[in-house]
Amino acid sequence: MENRTRIKRFTPIQQLFHLLLIVTFLIQGATGLARMFIETSWGKTVAWVFGGYEACRTIHIYVGILMLCGFALHGIY
Questions:
Q1: Neighbours of 49 (CB within 10 A)
Q2: So what's the pLDDT on residue 1?
Q3: Alpha-carbon distance 25 to 71, whole Å?
Q4: Mean pLDDT, to the nearest integer, of 1-28?
Q5: What is the Cα Rg of the chain in Å?
Q6: Does the pLDDT of residue 46 top 80, yes or no?
Q7: 3 burial level (CB within 10 Å; 0-12, 13-18, 19+)
């Protein structure tokens, strides 16, 4: 049998950073599309999931701030 060496690519904190960035990116995309296409039926449906147009705007802003802070911390780490 050959001896295989496993290389650990990401630490648990790096995995957490990646998960945070993925989730915030997806929320940003969903709320942004809902706001951009609010006049369509699917845009209204997506906005309804987040609590309406104004709630989408609020979520979009705060999640964007969280995403930028998470990205900055990820870069510093």
A1: 12
A2: 62
A3: 11
A4: 87
A5: 18
A6: yes
A7: exposed
Query: Would you call 71 exposed, middle or buried from its count of C-beta atoms within 10 A (0-12, 13-18, 19+)?
Result: middle
This prediction's pTM = 0.80
Tokens for 64, please give them: 């964007």
DSSP characters over the chain: ---PPP-----HHHHHHHHHHHHHHHHHHHHHHHHHTTTSHHHHHHHHHHTSHHHHHHHHHHHHHHHHHHHHHHHH-
Q: What is the mean pLDDT of the segment spanning 28-48?
A: 94
Residues 60, 28: contact at Cβ < 8 Å?
A: yes
Residue found by looking up tokens 């990820």 in the block: 74
Retrieve residue 17's tokens: 């950073």
**CA–CA gap between residue 71 and residue 74 (Å, rounded):** 5
